[in-house]
Write a structure and sequence with these properties.
Length: 194
């Protein structure tokens, strides 16, 4: 791995662990073992390095979300995505950045975070529409609203797990979301009466 990639990987991990505000260039250099000259050769500012690290974290997030867009049964894809293993006590690499005041106040740093969540939202909406079309969810559900709800459940689950230092609240939140989705199946008896 070249020094640039090592710096980006290190900044990515440090931002996930500590946030942007609490990560200094010195922290990055110490952990990566890359010298100051090399660091400033590749990145003229901490912000430039942070942008590259954010893009890396987003690149880690989006392939997982693309599981929602894959082939096969829409509800099976939803369940697989909700229940896939996650390190809840570490939080979401991308969502964590919304809690950092320096990221929130910097439109350039916040833009990739907003873009990533917008892309995930599109995937959620698409798979929820497929589930409605397949008769797996009631057709009176709004996929746009439900997508925001499911994203909020996951992000909120991370917050609860971190606050309690216990994976359990995260697992409960996503299992609860899945139970609500299962309860939102069309009732065949009602449909027959129409």
């Amino acid at each position: 791995m070249d020094s640039r990639e090592l710096l980006v990987d290190t900044m990515s991990e440090l931002m996930w662990e500590r946030g942007y505000a609490d990560t200094s260039p010195r922290h990055v250099r110490e952990r990566s073992g890359v010298g100051q000259g090399s660091m400033y050769h590749h990145f003229s500012t901490k912000r430039d390095l942070a942008l590259a690290a954010l893009e890396r974290n987003i690149a880690d997030l989006l392939p997982a979300a693309s599981e929602l867009d894959g082939p096969g049964d829409p509800m099976a894809r939803i369940e697989a995505y909700l229940m896939r293993p996650r390190a809840a006590l570490k939080g979401c690499k991308v969502g964590r950045m919304t809690q950092d005041p320096q990221v929130r106040e910097d439109p350039v740093l916040l833009a990739p975070v907003a873009r990533a969540f917008a892309e995930v939202h599109v995937s959620w909406v698409r798979v929820l529409r497929e589930a409605v079309a397949a008769g797996q969810l009631r057709d009176d559900l709004d996929p746009e609203q439900l997508a925001h709800t499911l994203m909020a459940v996951l992000q909120g689950g991370y917050v609860l797990a971190i606050a309690q230092q216990d994976q359990g609240p995260f697992d409960d939140a996503r299992a609860g979301a899945l139970a609500l989705l299962r309860a939102a199946k069309p009732n065949p008896k009602i449909n027959r009466r129409k």
